Amino acid sequence: MADGGAAVIDKAGLDALITALAGRGRTVIGPTVRDGAIVLAELSGGDELPYGWGVELEAGHYRLRERADSAAFAHSAGPQSWKTFLHPPRERQWTADRAADGELAFSEDRTPPPAYAFLGVRPCDLRAIAVQDRVLTAGPHADSRYRGRRRRAFLVAVECTEPGATCFCVSMGTGPAVGPGYDLALTEVLDDEGHRFLIRAGTEEGKSVLAELPQRPADPATRTAARERVAEAADHMGRTMPPVDLRTLMRDTLDAERWNDVTARCLTCGNCTMVCPTCFCTSTEDITDLTGDHAERWRRWESCYDLDFTHLAGAGSVRSSPRSRYRQWLTHKIGTWHDQFGSSGCVGCGRCIVWCPTGIDITEEAHALNAERAAGQAR
Amino acid sequence: MTVIAPRVCVATVPVPYQVVECSAESADTATIAVEPVAAPLPAFAPGQFAMVYAFGVGDVPLSVCGIDGHRLTHTVRSVGATSGALRSLRPGTRVGVRGPFGTAWDLSSASGRDLVVVAGGIGLAPLRPLVHGALAAPERYGRVNVLIGARTPGDLLYTEELPRWRADTRTLVTVDRPDATWTGDVGVVTALLDRAAFDPSSSVAFVCGPEVMIRATARELVHRGVDPDRIRVSLERTMHCGTGHCGHCQLGPLLLCRDGPVVTWTHAQPLLSVREL
User: Boundaries of each 4Fe-4S ferredoxin-type domain copy (chain A) (predicted)?
Assistant: First the structure.
């Protein structure tokens, strides 16, 4: 949407935004400092935002750092992503009760989904939400609970002005400028003229919320500063993917030597799948209570690194080697995801690099596979 | 008689069915027939599968091996907790059923052509409704071949039906390990292709069984000149949801609960040639 209706708000405007969203009955979730990290949690006021905090990121490395300025959104992805709320780690799918005559009654949970407002959705994470939308709601069977939460969610995006050393959204075409899908979008500007946020609406509800905030029309200086800061961010990506068709690269390198190299470092712990904002895999668990007549079906996050992930009763696991499990994760993420869901599964947020205990870097692996393919073609 | 319309259902929530028949096929395998307690699921096609839930234990994917109105038949081999519970069900017991899921064999595309149906072990179960379809309309197809392999004579499925199949089709049976009473063929199922009656250039093959048997059979069929596009195989991977959301059943670009289990050999061959894909 054109930013003809763009406005400028200050820190008090951000407070008012949280109040306005809460006033509409929404649970406002945003970044806040807790346990030595910037986590996503329920916010009751703007003072809980991580003003003055930044992060230092590297492969297998995450540290909070105090900043010289008081920026609220000058940090990149933390350990969590919005899937924690939209596609929760554990969810009950249904309950079943067996009557005395043996009849079974199945009931789906019909409690209304929570009405979330997400404050501070990065462009990469906004794309990640769109990717999960396609996985969970665009196929022949939609996940109705996910769809309910998603339809009610109000998204306040924040353009990226300070990418981390592990970021590569430019390579994946997902940032640092915001793409479609937001209700409101902010760009933080902090210069001699003060600390302020350029804000524009992407939906009717966004417009209506914006109208409630103390604001002034966007001035040319703020617009220019916002544009420049985002453009500068694009030039400061810490990582890049090889500039080739990654889908073809994955298809061409299924038997590469590099998989053995990375397997020597991979613990198959599954951290990368837990922190990835698009990884969606789940397992089901069936439980009964002590009466034996009440049963429940739960769904929980699962990782393709788990040996049991491909276990077939009577036949064992299809992917029993760690090599095959790392290869599955990477080739799915940037290769076969296209075949299955029409886009890449990687948005370039860099979480998998940061939270890998041995510092395996998805971009480094892709470069190595590309080099190995090129060397093979040259021979 | 009241006609109950299929319910508009959420594919993640089971629908109550009751067991109306069960019969032991072998020491570890039984065939159960289930009917809806109230509203039925949408119609199943041969090759598709259901997720069948044993109360309090769990659910497993089971191909339909018989479709008669709203009555569904499944053959289940006991290999784990859930399949063990399902194999031991008695008439009257309630189960939960979800589906239909996955792709179908598409027998109609074989119209006017010779059929080569090749089954290994319990792989005969999903092929059974296909054979029934061919038997019901023999004028639509050329020569119908049903080639069946089993570990031992005691593992052979649907033995009471085989005389009828033999009368109306070229049905050949082989076992890996004969017992003292066995007078038939011994060896792998692919050896039966020598005695099947089909024109490779215009045949359609339907293959299900252990993956090693599928590879060997498809390779042999291609070697004889059958177009890989006209070889359909039914593949197996772990399944938790059936709805394309859990990720377990991935085989490269395929989600087998959605894009399979029935795929052409053209699609399957390159995927099955990569170890541990």
Answer: 255-287, 337-365
